[in-house]
Each structure stands twice: as structure tokens, then as C-alpha cells.
Q: What sequence folds into this?
């Protein structure tokens, strides 16, 4: 066993023991404990737990990976995910806490005086939470597969068992205290390596400042200028300038913002505090704790990209000794190759790795390889070889066209002149960048192991919160609220645990074949929340005129349109090969990506809801008074003229 494995087992094992001990100590004994931790959590504790609940594998593992490869364009994730908390703190959290219900569907059912509305809200919540938890399972699998030396599938199974233990038995009470511990682990795991790496590259130990500092190599270049030079020399787009369209960046930012404000598993957290004031304070504290990671992420992403590029491109582009030799590639590369999340192919047989932008040639070659593999499988199984052969012919034509373009295009011709025949780093999964970063930067083994513990903590904390949201919807909203109102507290808790078990199995299965990187999958979930839950909550709080028919029609229109758009480009129910059109900007509606479409869905939700409400009866008078009472602070009297 290597020193790194020992450190990993010690730190990850110690963190698991801590989580299990807390879950057992704080296990739920009542439905109040299970759903809202008895309503007695302090605002600072709740803010820390909320931060851990929300800063998932997407934030810890994947967001910096997206920043590493998208650069400036990925700022939408930073602005959207943090800006959404401001919206939540100002527009939703205090009012929902004042309403005093356990769950979002319960609020919807009471506010819109309809069991049907409550059922529709449950359906939306389950779709959102399952989509979200797929991303967490991907993060769990990625982390376990590398650091525990198991396959990604086995990593998922281990993660599923751990989440089940403290989510099913601890409930919200156990999860809250576990998430406080997980926040401490994940924030240390994220910031400690960032401090080391920032100091190594720039001489400044504060990552946020290191991002804008000069390099420590004596060149006098600013770090971002150095990164821009490295990536553009290799044919990639400049890192620090906008490459995506303004409308897509704007729509993605808006989707992530209103999606954050409508996330059911986060909204539940504001019912765990004692007062409305504490709910608002919790949101503020959560933003502080989140900001510690989110202000560090741009530096982590940029520095990871620079370290990766310089590891492969060791000298001047095109020079005889400018590229890393295959046989000399560092141990971290070999370790990650075993997971299948990074791969190389010596296309020109020179024994060195060329990592550059080949104008789509690599993708065309990979598509051809996949088609040829499918043909062989069809031949072995005596399947439909005609269709498989047609796919091979189509892929071969595309690969030939890509090679012709590569050899003649001015942007890639210089690489062809060097004798390079395509990008030889054939895969770099975004989700490995944070986890591999300490290894790339040659940091101590205990730091690498700490990052593993942090990545697992981030994924498990959010997965637990999401599973609890699903469980409470099934047991509290469907069973107790509609189907079996006289169900005993004991049976309600049992139903919650059964729902968690089913949800874990579903999420684990889908996590083995996710529709994208963890952050991309999570962005889809935010889009679904933006198009369904956020509008119905906003209208429920701020519109006395909104009625049952409008709310139901709006939710169905919003989530239906958004799901249709996502499935159109991502495959029906995320099943690969069922896409209706290639997921490319030229095919998108107004250039809006599936991840950014939630805002369009939200607009459809609002429009349909208000149109339907206009032509249907007004809400009962007591509901209109309820809406007014929720918005007016208790104890406020009428205006007094002096």
C-alpha cells in the first residue's frame, strides 16, 4: 500500500466515522426531527449546513473543472449560483418560514387550496431532485474510483450505502449536524491545496489574489496572461475573454439564479430554524460560507488548467523536446487513466503527447472508433449489421472531411507541419481537475487525501439533502397529505426510509450513465427548478390573484417545456442515442443551451399561470388574506399621521 493510499484511507475513513457517529447521535425520533430537525437549529449552524447541502459535487469537484476549460464563459456559474442566494434570502426564505410548513409541496397545496396542486409540486420536486442527485452520484463515483482504487460503478455503490445510512436514519436532524462537519472538511480540502498551488505559481498564498498576480518564474507575466499565451499557442480559445454568446451567458446566469431560489432541498432548510428572523439570518450566513469556496474557485480552475497544459507542453510548441514523452508521463496521469476519465493515444507514433486544438479532428476520429466498435458488437451478436455499417460509413466520411480540413486550415496547418495527426489527449473529464490538481502540482500526499475526503463530503452532503426532500414529498405530501391522512408517525417515518432507498437505487443507476459532467447535470436540475418551483412560490407569496388553475397550468407548462427541450438535445430520459438533434449552438432555440433554458421555462410558467388565472375564478377570500398576512411583519400596525 502506498503512502497516498494510507493517507486516503485514514482521512476518508476518519471522516466517515465522524459522519456515522453524528448521524447516530442525532438520529430522528419523530417526524418533526426527521423533516425539520425539530425546528431548533441556530442560524449560524443552519447557514453552515445549508452551505454544505448546496455546495455539492458540482461546486466542489466540477465547477472549477468547467472554469478550467471554459474560462470567462464559466463566470455564469459563479454569478448564478451565488446570486440565487440573494434572491432566496430576500424574496422567499422569510415568507416561507413564516408560512410554517414542512415542505414546498405542502406550501403549494395550502396556498393554492388544492391537493392536485400539491401532487403536481411533488412530481416537479422528484424530477428536480433525481436529476440533481445524478450529478452527486457521478461525483461520488469519480472520487471513489480514483482514491479507493475501485471501479466507478463500485464507487457509486459504496457511496449509495453511506448516504443511505445517515440520510435514512438521521433524517434532517442527523443530516444537519453531519453537514456542519462536512462543510468544515470540504472547505479545508478546497482551500488548503489552493493556498499551496497559488504560492507555488505566483508567490502569493491567497488564491483570490494569486489569480491576478505575476508568475513566480521570473517572467514578469501575469498569471492569466501566461495562461492565455499557453492555450492560444496550442490553438485553443483565449481563456480570459468571452467566447460564448451574450444571450446564452445571460440566460444561464438567470436560470442558475432563479433555480437556486427554487431548490426544494435548500428551501426546506429554512424550516429548521426557530423564527423568521433566523431564516433570513441563515441565508446570510450561508452566503458567507459559500463565498469562501466560490471566490477561490476561479483561481483553482485557472491554475489547474495552466498546470495541466505545462505538464504536457514542456517546451516550445513544435520543438523536438517540447512535449512530454509517453513513457515519462507522471504517476498521476497513469492513476487517472485507470479510471477512464483521462486517456491518451499516440496517433503519430513519436512517443510523445501532443495536446492541442485540432479543429474537431479528434472528435471525428473518436466517433469513427465508436461506430466501428458498435459494428463489431453487432457482428458478434448477429445483430443489425446493415445499420451499424451505415454508421461506420457516415463516421468515416466525417473523419476524412475533418482530416482534410485539419491539413488545410490555417489555424491547424502549423500543427500538421510539425507532423502531429490529432490531439493525443483524447479525453480529460472536467470532473477530475480539482481532484487531480494537488497531484499535478506535486503537493504532499496528505493534501491529496484531504481533497478526496472533501470531494466525498461535498457529494454526500447534497445527496443526503436531496434524498430527504424526495422522501418527505412521498411520505409527508403524498401519503399523509393526500392518500393516508391517518397514517401513524411510525409508519410515516418508515415510508420516508423506503422512499429514500428507492431514490438512492434510481440515482445510482442513472449516475453510472450521466448526461454530462456533474456541473452540467446539476445545471439541468436548476433549470427544472427555475421553470417549475420558483414561479409558483413567487406567485404564491406576491400575487393574491393567483389561483389553483393558474398554478397547476403554470407548473406543468414550465417543467414540460423545459424537460422537452432538455430531452431533445440530451436524449429521452437521458438515454444516449435517443437525442432528436445534435447538442450544438446552431440547433438551439435562439442560441440558448439546454442548461440555460430554465429561464424560458420560467417565463412560460408565469405567462400561462396569469393567462389561466385571468379566465378562472379568484382564490377564496381567506386565501387572499393569508397572502397578505404572510408578507406583513407581525406587530405592524397601520400608518399614523402626525
A:
Amino acid at each position: 500500500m502506498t503512502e497516498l493510499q494510507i493517507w486516503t484511507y485514514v482521512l476518508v475513513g476518519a471522516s466517515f466515522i465522524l459522519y456515522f457517529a453524528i448521524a447516530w447521535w442525532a438520529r430522528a425520533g419523530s417526524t418533526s426531527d426527521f423533516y425539520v430537525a425539530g425546528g431548533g437549529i441556530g442560524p449560524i449552524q443552519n447557514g453552515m449546513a445549508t452551505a454544505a447541502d448546496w455546495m455539492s459535487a458540482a461546486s466542489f469537484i466540477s465547477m472549477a473543472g468547467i472554469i478550467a476549460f471554459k474560462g470567462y464563459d464559466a463566470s455564469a456559474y459563479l454569478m448564478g449560483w451565488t446570486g440565487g442566494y440573494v434572491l432566496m434570502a430576500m424574496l422567499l426564505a422569510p415568507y416561507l418560514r413564516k408560512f410554517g410548513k414542512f415542505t414546498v409541496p405542502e406550501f403549494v397545496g395550502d396556498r393554492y387550496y388544492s391537493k392536485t396542486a400539491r401532487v403536481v409540486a411533488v412530481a416537479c420536486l422528484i424530477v428536480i431532485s433525481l436529476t440533481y442527485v445524478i450529478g452527486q452520484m457521478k461525483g461520488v463515483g469519480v472520487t471513489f474510483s480514483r482514491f479507493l482504487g475501485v471501479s466507478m460503478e463500485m464507487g457509486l455503490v459504496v457511496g449509495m450505502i453511506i448516504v443511505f445510512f445517515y440520510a435514512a436514519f438521521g433524517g434532517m436532524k442527523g443530516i444537519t449536524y453531519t453537514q456542519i462537519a462536512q462543510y468544515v472538511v470540504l472547505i479545508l480540502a478546497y482551500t488548503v491545496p489552493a493556498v499551496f498551488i497559488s504560492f507555488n505559481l505566483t508567490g502569493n498564498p491567497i488564491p483570490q489574489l494569486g489569480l491576478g498576480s505575476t508568475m513566480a518564474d521570473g517572467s514578469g507575466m501575469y498569471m492569466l496572461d501566461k495562461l492565455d499565451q499557453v492555450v492560444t499557442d496550442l490553438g485553443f480559445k483565449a481563456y480570459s475573454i468571452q467566447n460564448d454568446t451574450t444571450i446564452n451567458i445571460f440566460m444561464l446566469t438567470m436560470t442558475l439564479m432563479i433555480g437556486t431560489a427554487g431548490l426544494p432541498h435548500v428551501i426546506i432548510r429554512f424550516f429548521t430554524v426557530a423564527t423568521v428572523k433566523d431564516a433570513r439570518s441563515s441565508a446570510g450566513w450561508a452566503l458567507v460560507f459559500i463565498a469562501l469556496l466560490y471566490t477561490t474557485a476561479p483561481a483553482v480552475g485557472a491554475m489547474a488548467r495552466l498546470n495541466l497544459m505545462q505538464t504536457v507542453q514542456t517546451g516550445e510548441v513544435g520543438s523536438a523536446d517540447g512535449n512530454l514523452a509517453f513513457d515519462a508521463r507522471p504517476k498521476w496521469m497513469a492513476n487517472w487513466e485507470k479510471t477512464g476519465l483521462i486517456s491518451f493515444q499516440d496517433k503519430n507514433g513519436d512517443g510523445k503527447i501532443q495536446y492541442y486544438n485540432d479543429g474537431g479532428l479528434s472528435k471525428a476520429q473518436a466517433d469513427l472508433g465508436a461506430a466501428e466498435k458498435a459494428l463489431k458488437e453487432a457482428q458478434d451478436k448477429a445483430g443489425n449489421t446493415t445499420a451499424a455499417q451505415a454508421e461506420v460509413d457516415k463516421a468515416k466520411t466525417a473523419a476524412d472531411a475533418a482530416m482534410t480540413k485539419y491539413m488545410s486550415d490555417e489555424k491547424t496547418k502549423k500543427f500538421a507541419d510539425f507532423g502531429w495527426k490529432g490531439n493525443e489527449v483524447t479525453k480529460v473529464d472536467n470532473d477530475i481537475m480539482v481532484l487531480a490538481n494537488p497531484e499535478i502540482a506535486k503537493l504532499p500526499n496528505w493534501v491529496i487525501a484531504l481533497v478526496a475526503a472533501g470531494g466525498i463530503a461535498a457529494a454526500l452532503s447534497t445527496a443526503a439533502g436531496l434524498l430527504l426532500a424526495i422522501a418527505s414529498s412521498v411520505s409527508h405530501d403524498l401519503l399523509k397529505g393526500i392518500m393516508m391522512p391517518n397514517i401513524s408517525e411510525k409508519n410515516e417515518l418508515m415510508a420516508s426510509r423506503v422512499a429514500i432507498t428507492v431514490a438512492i437505487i434510481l440515482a445510482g443507476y442513472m449516475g453510472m450513465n450521466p448526461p454530462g459532467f456533474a456541473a452540467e447535470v446539476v445545471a439541468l436540475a436548476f433549470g427544472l427548478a427555475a421553470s417549475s418551483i420558483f414561479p409558483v412560490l413567487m406567485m404564491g407569496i406576491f400575487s393574491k390573484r393567483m389561483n389553483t388553475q393558474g398554478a397547476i397550468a403554470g407548473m406543468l407548462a414550465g417543467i414540460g417545456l423545459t424537460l422537452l427541450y432538455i430531452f431533445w438535445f440530451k436524449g429521452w430520459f437521458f438515454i444516449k442515442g435517443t437525442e432528436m438533434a445534435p447538442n450544438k449552438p446552431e440547433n438551439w432555440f435562439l442560441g440558448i443551451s439546454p442548461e440555460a433554458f430554465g429561464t424560458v421555462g420560467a417565463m412560460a410558467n408565469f405567462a400561462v399561470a396569469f393567462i389561466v388565472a385571468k379566465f378562472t375564478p379568484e382564490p377564496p377570500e381567506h386565501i387572499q388574506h393569508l397572502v397578505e398576512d404572510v408578507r406583513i411583519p407581525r406587530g405592524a400596525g397601520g400608518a399614523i399621521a402626525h
